[in-house]
Amino acid sequence: MNEKLQKVLARAGHGSRRELEALIKAGRVSVNGVVAKLGERLEEESAVVRIDGHIVSAKAQEEVICRVLAYYKPEGELCTRHDPEGRRTVFDRLPKIRGSRWISVGRLDANTSGLLLFTTDGELANRLMHPSRQVEREYLVRVFGEVNEAKIRNLVNGVQLEDGLARFEDVVYTGGEGMNHTFYVVINEGRNREVRRLWESQDCTVSRLKRVRYGDIFLDKKLPRGGWMELDLKEVNYLRNLVELRPENETMMDETKANSSRKRERARSQKIRRAVKRHEERVSAPKGRSNNPRRSKKAAGEHGARNKTR
Description:
Blueprint: E1 3-4, H1 5-11, H2 17-25, E2 29-31, E3 34-35, E4 41-42, E5 49-51, E6 54-56, E7 68-73, E8 103-104, E9 113-119, H3 122-129, E10 137-144, H4 149-157, E11 159-161, E12 164-166, E13 170-177, E14 180-187, H5 194-200, E15 205-214, E16 217-218, E17 228-230, H6 233-242, H7 253-284, H8 293-309
Parallel strand pairs: 9-15
Antiparallel strand pairs: 1-4, 2-3, 2-5, 5-6, 7-9, 7-17, 8-9, 10-14, 10-15, 11-12, 13-14, 15-16
């Protein structure tokens, strides 16, 4: 092991390189009790690394199992770990994991819904997000305004934004009514609010935006808003190959499925036991008498009333 500290920690799932560089600059990371410096290299596997005083794992790459989740982000959720105002974040619904944490592959605006990937491998997240990789993102977008061939041509050829030239790789019209139009659009950089800013440059306002694809990973139609599903080994290795990372040989999918199956079996067993118990109570109750206290009292009252009338 002889790599930069932020790279090792990112690969172990403690954040993106950018996030970890900020932590190191702030003096919140230490190695063997000494505050780390930006650019420092980790040379010993046995080194004790702490973030904010808590010991964290810095496992070598071959020891870490890369996991990826596909999450259907609803509108209104924030792409941050903690919100000072207490608003819901995309991390609130994700499954808990030990010895690592989920890292989001890019972000979506609060008002944007759709596919958001999470991984335990910081290096994978960093490469997928990097503009040089040119990974396609496809969106379903509804715009309000006048749209004509000239505007579409501008968007495909390229528009000068405040942070440089931007363009849609593809634009497909799917229908509309009046001044409302729906399109599928493709970008391959994922700059901040890029889709919205491109349409705004043509005097059109985005009224709805939903990401439906990241690379060749599509938003599953069966996935509910706020729901997640773990990608299988083939899909994980597709993403790793996309950014020139070695393929993963292990997966947690079997264990996850086994846990889910065990939970379903326990619930089924409990349901059967409750049904058997109810049956035994009915059989063991004295003949002609209900084992329901409310029903017994009512029956006793009626019996007493009949005696009085006699």
